[in-house]
Design goal:
The complex is a heterodimer of chains A (634) and B (287). With 634 residues, chain A is α/β, with parallel strands linked by helices. Chain A has helices at 4-15, 22-28, 37-67, 75-107, 111-115, 117-145, 154-186, 200-220, 252-260, 265-272, 286-295, 299-302, 325-336, 355-361, 389-395, 406-427, 437-459, 474-484, 493-518, 563-571, 590-595, 620-629; strands spanning 241-248, 274-278, 308-312, 319-320, 340-344, 366-369, 383-385, 403-404, 467-472, 524-531, 541-547, 553-558, 575-576, 600-601. The relative contact order of chain A is 0.12. Helix content of chain B is 72%, strand content 1%. Classes of the chains: A alpha/beta (634), B mainly alpha (287). At the A-B interface, α1 of A face α9, α10 and α12 of B.
Chain lengths: 634, 287
Amino acid sequence: MTTPDVDELRRRLRALGYLDAGVDRFVLAPARASRGPAVLAALASVRVGVLAALLLGPAAAIGLGARLPGLVTGVRDAAVLAVYLGVLFGAAMAGVSLAVSFIVRAIFRSPAALAGVRARRFAFAAGALVTIAALAYLTLWWRTANAGFGWRAPAATALALVVAVAISLLLGHAVRIATLGVLAAAAPAAAGPRAMKHSWTLNVAAGALAFAGAAVLLVWAAPAEPVAARPPLTVVPTGLHVRVIAIDGVDSAILQQLADGGRLPSLAAAIAKSRAALAPEDTRDPARAWTTVATGTLPDVHGVASLETRRVAGVRGRLAAASGGTADVIRAATDLLRLTRPAVVSREQRRVKTIWEAAADAGLRTAVVNWWASWPAPPDSGIVVTDRAILRLERGGALDAEIAPASLYTALRAAWPSLRERARAQAAGAFDAIADRETQTVLTRSAELDATLAGIAAALPGPPRDLDVLYLPGLDIAQHTLLAATEPAAAAPSVIAARLDALRSYYVFVDRLVTPIAAPAEGELVMLVTEPGRVERPGPGTLAAAGRTVAPAHAVEAAAVDVAPTVLHALGVPLSRELAGHAVLAFFDGSFAARYPIRFVATYGPPSSTNESRRGQPLDQEMIDRLRSLGYVR
Amino acid sequence: MSALPRFFSDYQQRVSAELGRLLPQRDGAVERAMRYTALAPSKQVRAVVTLSCADLCGAPAERAVPAAAAIELVHAASLILDDLPSMDDAPLRRGRRANHLEFGEAIAILAAFGLLNLAFGTLARAHDPPLAGRLAALTSGAVGPDGLIGGQALDLLATERGIDFEMLERIHRGKTGALFVAAATSGALIAGAGPDAIAALAAYAKNLGLAFQIIDDLLDVEGDPAETGKAVRADARKTTFVSFSGLDGARQLALELCATADRALAPFGARADRLRELSAFVAARRL
């Protein structure tokens, strides 16, 4: 049984550097040797930095992983990030400690002043500031890391805040001790440390106050709307099979002109009955624009900011190339240190579900071919032939989640030679009328790609699906190569005019290519989505619907974010309230609207984080090279 | 009565032999007074700390023997001065009459200075100049106003006066802790140890030194002069750890300090077992 006096003496001994003053000993170890204040400040600050690195690095890695989806794909990524962030925070905290030490030394020059109460109070204030800053950061980190559920998980949050308070107090204490050490070195006569005039009660009160402050900060910084739990999706079957044909690089005016001229019979039929103009988007980036289409959310929500991303050395995840805020800071820092290399955006950066993922979640059968940022394919979202599938089919080898389910890869790989041969045959001769050989080559290459993708879509096995999605990039690639990437010397008006004419022939090619799938059969709804592609001045896109249940509708105004809700509503899937767009109800006839009113759910939840088998070598560099050759990345 | 750890005897023999070699053999009063205290039966804990730390950090013990002997010489000098009538006026030391009672006050003072002088000379002769300089500076710090002298001065001012806990700690840090820390650091420096090892051993010695002093306070109250070799209740006029925490509390704090000293040895693993034996001995000592 200990007496109260012993408890008090134990505390005072601790304050004097005895007993368990481990942190003090660690920070002030350099003071054991005879060193000047400056050297001691530097060495002690380095140790404070080491403490900060060990304490804040792992915490920040978890927070950053939650803030930047796709960056952390596993324990290894988290560990490497923790090292990077540990170095960052360690350097910052060492800098703060060093600055405080020098400031206090500059302010209190005379030995008397150094030994005085004011100097010690200054050191205490510096430690308190560091404590407050660290606590505020860790509290906001917790808010981010737990997606804002805050006090709705009181035990976890209380525990996190207790840990945050402990870390913050420890770091603040370390800075104070380092500063006091420098004071002692500068004025040896004052070196005898004095026990601070505080007690257990005061310590507990300070901890409780810090906890309360952090709790208030957490409440203050909480999102206005709580994060909703993901409810089960209940489909009201509409009996419709929906086929989405997405064509990139389409100029709506040219499309209309050629359709009116009778040169695009299939596409003309697709847009004849019901059509909406999609408001121009503020981006030329295809991954960003088409992810907006596929998710019905804006880029700041879906997270795919650009096609080009950065991969941080040692981390398997990716960092968006232009997403602002934290990502920009991390990217700038890692670029500066030559720790990054270019990479292509992937599904791991996407924070919300696409139409095929939401539909598959609702139990519908789905297939998607070649959509941007669809790699790596999840195992639970129907058939996914990702934007890397062509590369994998060309090169063979073990699958790295380019295609799901994995069994489909075997079938497509077996059919690959015939698919390619048929694609070449479709492209061959389509552009013979074009005199310029270079233009002809560009168009033929794009046509082979589109024909291959259409061939893959047609070759997908299995029972009829509720949703088929196909993305065709050929027109955008051709248009970009012929117009946007034109050498100044070749930019004579006559050349440009010839190339524009040549591009018109590509519209005709695409029309022929989609003929087998553009005409809706009984119970089918064909939706055509176009975007203007990578042109200087983005124009409107097109959303058109064709099928028996489609009502005549023209001069409808819509946006890219309206595509996903329209498709999902046609399938009978309730709409998430997190979608930014609305279903274009003008497309549906009265009986459909009456039988299938729009239903809502709070959320579709985050995308699946589990990937299909990833035994194969990732095709990262090959993908970069391919996109570079097609003019997507520089 | 707690037994000395077995490894002590080897170290003690080496240090005693070195002291015998170093101390002047002439038959003058000062020389005899020097030998009287320096060669009196003693545990030589500080010297053992030096040798153990040197051994732990990889130096052969014989390399550190001169420094260990120097530490013991300084300690012996401090005991002579401590017992003077103008200081603690103690009659008994190391089981014998105090030096000044045997040789007179003037000779005792000269003997103390002779021992101090011999200590610094030993350090200078035994090591290369850079290391000798560092050891001399370290010992000088432990003896000077921030060490033994400062602690003794505060102790004198505090006698028969109420002092606070921080003042008591400063006294003990100066009178006991400083030389313990210097002893440990000397051993590590001779072995060429790095800053982290030196810091760990200094933390060990700091905690052990205070524990040693608290046990001294306890023995002053409840010890047997036949065992301790000095008069009991000599510190009755002084404020001690026992004054603040009582007998049980003081013993408990001493045990906790020894445990903390052991924890400081964690980086060395099992190699530091001798120092752990030493702290266990300090925690249990009755002499």
